[in-house]
Design brief:
The chain is of the alpha/beta class. It has helices spanning 2-10, 20-23, 26-29, 52-57, 67-71, 77-89, 114-131, 141-144, 152-172, 193-203, 214-219, 225-229, 256-264, 280-295, 302-307; strands at residues 43-46, 62-66, 94-98, 135-138, 176-179, 208-213, 234-239, 271-273, 317-318, 328-330, 339-341, 344-346, 354-356, 363-370, 389-393, 397-401, 435-442, 445-447, 454-457, 459-465, 468-476, 494-495, 503-511. It starts with a helix and ends with a strand. It folds into 2 domains: 29-307, Divalent-metal-dependent TIM barrel enzymes (TIM Barrel, Alpha-Beta Barrel); 317-511, Exo-inulinase, domain 1 (Jelly Rolls), CATH 2.60.120. Helix 7 (114-131) runs parallel beside helix 9 and helix 9 (152-172) packs across helix 10. Strands 1-2-3-4-5-6-7-8 form an 8-stranded parallel barrel.
Amino acid sequence: MVTQQIHGSCRLRTLLVPLIWLVVPTALANGGSNRDQPFAPKIGVCASLENAELIRQSGGDYIEVGVRRFLVPDKPDADFAANLKAAKACKLPIRAANGFLPGSLKCVGPEADHAAVLKFAQTAFERAKQVGIKTIVFGSSGARSIPDGFDRSRAEHQFIGLLMKMAPLAAANDVVIAIEPLNSKECNFINTLPEGVRIVEAVGHPNVRLLADIYHMLRMDEPPQHIRAAGHLLRHVHIAEKQKRTAPGVMGDDFRPHLQTLADIGYRGGISMECGWEDLSAQLRVAVQTLRKQMAGMRDDPELRRMSSQLYPTNISCFPFDSDFPCWTHSDGSPVKWKLVDGAVQVTPGTGSIVTKSKFQDFRLHVEFNVPRLPPLPEGVDRGNRGNSGVYLQQRYEIQILDSYGVKPESWDCGALYRVRVPDENASEPAGEWQSYDILFRAPRWEGHGDDARKIENALITVFHNGVLIHDDVELKNKTGAGRPEGPQPGPILLQDHGNEVRFRNVWIVPLD
């Protein structure tokens, strides 16, 4: 089953990650080595493999094929064999593939089928690895569009959860998924680069990145500065002229503001021409020359540099553990009395739990923790307080922390939704090892206000423990254990004092409401 395969691949421990993946210099993140190099990215063409020689002769550097047409993930290996043979004989590199999912495989909405999507994706990624393809473009408007009348926040929750499950499959095959914002005439979900940044940051995995399609940006009147804001996440670029999606040079579009921004951020990935061709053999050389001419010497234009100067903030909120604990208090509002130990915070038993000063509704949360290594328990002694702590969402819903290495998990073990649901798998590491939770949470929905408020939808939660999926879009019908009563108000993140010297570090959150 796909679920078992996903769990197995997650054991590679690829899913999350300190925030290092967010601050890698752009030139390194997208395949380059030095920001001071001349701006001369590889130019490719989205086309069938039969055109590879024409592309090479016209000055193109690589070819971008179609996932469904070339990798044929819905076909048996025998049907793919001929394409693989052709790829091995091709004189041009095949760097990327687009046209990812068919419209029949729904990512969001009431007909979303993540198991089917992941099965299709796994085959696509495995075949991409055989070909040497490093980037899979995720546009797929038919698969990701939100059905009429379906709640947008629920669709976003579904899509982020899908990508969190898909990312380890990509990592296992040395593939990066590049999310492509599409203009609103083609899709009603993820239409701009800032919207794409929000999704990619929420997924929080180095194998999920962003694509900037300059054609779609022009159709949406997006400024070039959006490229700068997305630079730390940018993996790949598409380009075509605005009016009729023609090749560069046909209508005379000036791409220099966008290209200048790519140069300024040190972009070293590829730029693929994804456009309509009236006569590929006649237009292709002109298109390549047009792009190279527009890229030449552009750093000498101060006006273009000015247009590329604005920086947009990230959506991620970090909660550092510094000496003054600027983002935390104890539950009663008093200053934090926990200890700082080697860059982490350690529970001081008896001082009480700590909570974030900020409160949240929907979010994606990352927490790292370390339960203390203790002497073995005498036979017959209960282990229920061994490294006991917890992470409370909105101070209402607890994901348990415990020394549970090597045991059959119960509803009070590490990773459990406390006393409500046993984790699907025991993913615990031995005590003394750093571990992580990656949590996607959607708060309950309510009608009315105050005492008249009535819950109309339960909370939803997805949890990865050390990269292993242990709760998949689980419905929470009420608060857990000692959590505060449910209500429509947002709530803080709570780290529990349960009498054990548990340590925490690298806590960050992406609000999604």
